[in-house]
Amino acid sequence: MVDALRISSESRIGSNFNLQFLTHTNESYTVQYRNALDAAHPWTRLTNVAAQASAGTAIINDANTSGAPTRFYRVVTPALP
Fold first, then answer.
1. Element (H, E) at 32
2. How far apart are CA 54 and CA 62, in angstroms?
3. What is the Cα 39 distance to its own chain's centre?
4. How many angstroms separate the CA atoms of 81 and 76, rounded?
5. pTM > 0.85: yes or no
6. What angle do CA 28, 34, 36 make, to 5 degrees?
7. What Rg do the C-alpha atoms of the chain give, in angstroms?
8. What's the pLDDT tens digit per position in 24-67?
9. If I label 79, which of 37, 44, 45, 60 is the partner at 20 to 30 A Cα–Cα?
């Protein structure tokens, strides 16, 4: 059984935001963010995580949060083009 895809940990230090999620073997991911949950703020790619030969933990850093008092994140698989 494959575990559900979810952000398992997050932390903020200054303007840096870190999030973690478990990865599965041979699956790629896209991490996206948006500053509000309305049509004026579409999901934007933060980064892609390439498929790996073994499962593990992805640690993602968003160093550009100083201008955004609120930011929403999601992880999708497979990675978006």
1. strand 29-34
2. 24
3. 20
4. 12
5. yes
6. 150
7. 13
8. 999 999 999 999 999 999 999 999 999 999 999 999 999 988 77
9. 37
